[in-house]
Design brief:
Largest sheet: 3 strands, antiparallel
Distance between the termini: 32 Å
CATH superfamily: translation initiation factor eif-2b, domain 1
Low-confidence stretches: 1-10
Shape: globular
Strand content: 5-15%
CATH architecture: Up-down Bundle
Mean pLDDT: 86
CATH class: Mainly Alpha
Strand order of the largest sheet: 1-2-3
Number of domains: 1
CATH topology: Four Helix Bundle (Hemerythrin (Met), subunit A)
């Protein structure tokens, strides 16, 4: 009979949302802990592309926060705000459709529930932050 020693590797990637940005702590390619302060969704996506953010759960969390940053970055008074947010969301989803479509749907649903045209962009962003925090909590269990 063969014995298998199954060990689970705890994620070393940590996320902290502050008032207007995301702080990501992760292990870089040289094995050192790196802390990155991000306020631009494209920079957050580049972390995934660079390989600094890896693992399905971490990528899902990162993409949820990227959607928050995108919602925050877009101009409130742009009459194409929601179509631009949808386009960004679909681009984020293409990172890995299998693992991200449910995250993108949840984030868009949270933004929709906030009723931005009536309540404003800040309410949309706050609702999406709450959803991203919930996704992070679920993925880190």
């Amino acid at each position: 009979m063969t014995s298998v020693n199954a060990s689970t590797k705890l994620s070393t990637t940590k996320f902290l949302w502050t008032n207007d940005r995301l702080i990501v702590s992760c292990i870089d390619h040289s094995g050192s802990m790196k802390t990155i302060d991000i306020s631009d969704y494209l920079k957050l996506i580049k972390l995934i592309d660079s390989g600094l953010i890896s693992g399905v759960g971490n990528i899902q969390i990162t993409c949820a926060y990227a959607m928050v940053l995108a919602a925050k970055e877009l101009d409130t008074f742009d009459n194409k705000y929601y179509s631009k947010l949808l386009k960004i969301s679909l681009n984020i989803e293409t990172i890995n459709k299998t693992n991200l479509s449910s995250i993108v749907k949840r984030m868009l649903s949270a933004g929709d529930d906030a009723n931005g045209p009536v309540n404003g962009k800040n309410v949309v962003v706050k609702k999406m932050i709450l959803e991203a925090n919930l996704i992070e909590k679920e993925k880190s269990v």
